[in-house]
Amino acid sequence: MSVLDLVIRSRQVVTVAGVQAGAVGVRDGRIVAIAPYDADLAATDTITLGADEVLLPGLVDSHVHVNDPGRTEWEGFTSATKAAAAGGVTTIVDMPLNSIPPTCDVPALRLKRKTAETQAYVDVGFWGGAIPGNVADLRPLHEAGGFGFKCFLLHSGVDEFPPLDPAELEAAMKEIATFDGLLIVHAEDAHHIDAANGTSYQGFLRSRPRAAENKAVADVIELAQRTNCRVHILHVSSADVLPLIADAKADGVRITAETCPHYLTFTAEEIPDGATQYKCCPPIREAANRDELWDGLRDGIIDLVVSDHSPSTIDLKHLDTGDFGTAWGGIASLQLGLSAVWTEARRRGFTLADVTRWMASAPAAQTGLRTKGRIEVGYDADLCVLAPDETFVVDATKLQHKNAITPYDGRTLDGVVRGTWLRGVPVDTDADPRGRLLTRGERR
Hints:
There is one protein chain. This protein has helices at 77-86, 106-116, 135-143, 166-178, 201-207, 210-227, 242-250, 261-265, 287-298, 337-347, 352-366; strands at 4-15, 18-27, 30-35, 43-48, 54-57, 59-64, 89-94, 123-126, 128-129, 149-152, 182-186, 230-233, 255-259, 304-305, 383-393, 412-422, 425-426. It is α/β, with parallel strands linked by helices. It has a six-stranded parallel beta sheet with strand order 9-10-11-12-13-14. Strand 9, helix 3 and strand 10 (149-152) form a beta-alpha-beta unit. It is globular.
């Protein structure tokens, strides 16, 4: 083999075959060799990892609210992609809200891409949106490279992205099925949700009960059976829906599901009254429910783990009043997902190969990113070096997120990201960004 651009040698490489010692060879941004650790591979640059370091594929986070353009004071492509790289994430897929305009037609997608193209430190793809009245825009968004379509079944939190009623949902699913697109659903039923107010976390939790998720997921499954539309359930927080999803999969419904690090980490019992930094929708539930979500991952009912990074400015969290009814519902965690999930996973007997599957290969497969999420010949050399046994205390002021507020602040986590490579080149957040904008189904 001729001289390679890069060889990384590690005693622990997480590949599709498991964790093994190896040497990963890179040329022109692609992995071209996976050889034994001591293999004679000539390269312009050779890196030998320490005994305490593991080489992982770069993570794929398919649920990120960048909020740019329109709400760039909440987050932006520069800060979001720097945070991603710091957390070992080499690809994000941006949600169609809370930017202004939302990504619900082709002109809005073009604007989003133009906004991102000079700011992206990692690779970026884009979801479209399904809202009332835009059925005619769905196929054009798909053909323009959108990864799929997000919808809400209740108020989204922003007026410019309204929810679908049952008839509108079915119409969107019928249209999306005609071109084998993907609908991703915020599944909470509005009729089961009460207005929240005050500082009581238990009061907020009661206002968004499991029944709201259970009913919505059941409705989506029924429509997926009727329309043959591919569907994906976002941010599962109620473990009650797991049997519904398992049965649907067994019946041939084309359905996948995700959960998020905060549902796998925190518990309702530990959240103090007034601690609105923990507010998200659907909410963080009880410890027993959290354990069942982990069981859902173990059983393969939940397919992937992604951040649902949904930041805002600090003032919108209303820390001064602690009112869960008025505070913005969203958790900032893009930089912390790998460490948060690994911290809980390892004490439950899971391995880094499991975490990599949930956070790299599965989201890449679910979004159709055919060269991402694996250390495998032919794949992009998107790589992460993790020191899994090193711990750190989260300091929100030192994260790359634009606003220094997260419920992880002060929490001790396992696993320190020591380096991130994008197509074989270290991500340098002090240099010019070199991330690419991705389109659905492309294979570079």
